[in-house]
Amino acid sequence: MIKSIEYRIGNALDLDQVIELYRSCSLGGRRPVDDRDRVRAMLANANIVVTAWDGELMVGISRAISDFSYATYLSDLAVRESYQRAGIGKELIRRTQLAGGTQATVILLSAPAAVDYYPRVGFERHDSCWLIRGDQPLR
Ligand SMILES: CC(C)(COP(=O)(O)OP(=O)(O)OC[C@H]1O[C@@H](n2cnc3c(N)ncnc32)[C@H](O)[C@@H]1OP(=O)(O)O)[C@@H](O)C(=O)NCCC(=O)NCCS
User: Fold this and answer.
1) Binning pLDDT at 50, 70 and 90, where does residue 114 land?
2) Of ligand 1's atoms, which has the minimum distance to the CA of residue 74?
3) Mean pLDDT of the chain
């Protein structure tokens, strides 16, 4: 792990810095980074946001929603491309898990680029995950 990386918890972040961080790695192509209001809401309504910093540069983010007693949904995990594979992603998850508490299971949907990452750091695959889009009517 890079020794000089500082971790902070909290969502009082500069929106442009967050958007720039998403764009600095492949997650930028998978999140609505061109819709500032949407990203602003994503940030404001998340209740566990952990960021990694190299001085004034934001180099990683974990954005999660937790009830702090049963489930923590880890929605976004992103590490600036030039800082990847240095232990930052794992530390962001560890701090997110810690903030959610020992009774909360961390749940996520992996981006295709990270499907081999999560088992590597200890996640187990769940084969009955289901989702329905917000605009998709129930049958
Ligand atoms: C996936 C991601 C968050 C991983 O963060 P990271 O800081 O680069 O990873 P870490 O340094 O914590 O890696 C921990 C271990 O997993 C390995 N690893 C890292 N990325 C991996 C990948 N994509 N596939 C498989 N293994 C990977 C590392 O080599 C390391 O192994 P080691 O402990 O044997 O040295 C980061 O690469 C990223 O932001 N990718 C682009 C966005 C993305 O896909 N995010 C996930 C959205 S669900």
Assistant:
1) very high
2) 48
3) 96
71 and 78 in contact (C-beta within 8 Å)? no
Specify the length of the chain in residues: 139
Residue 3 binned pLDDT confidence (cut-offs 50, 70, 90): low
CA distances from 22 to 39, 41, 58, 66, 94 (A): 10, 15, 10, 21, 20
Q: Where are the domains of the chain?
A: 6-120
Ligand 1 nearest-atom number relative to CA 60: 39
Contact between 79 and 111 under an 8 Å Cβ cutoff? The reply is no
What is the CA(49)–ligand 1 centre distance, in A? Answer: 18
Q: On the CB side of 9, how many CA atoms lie within 13 Å of its CA?
A: 13
CATH for the stretch 6-120: 3.40.630.30
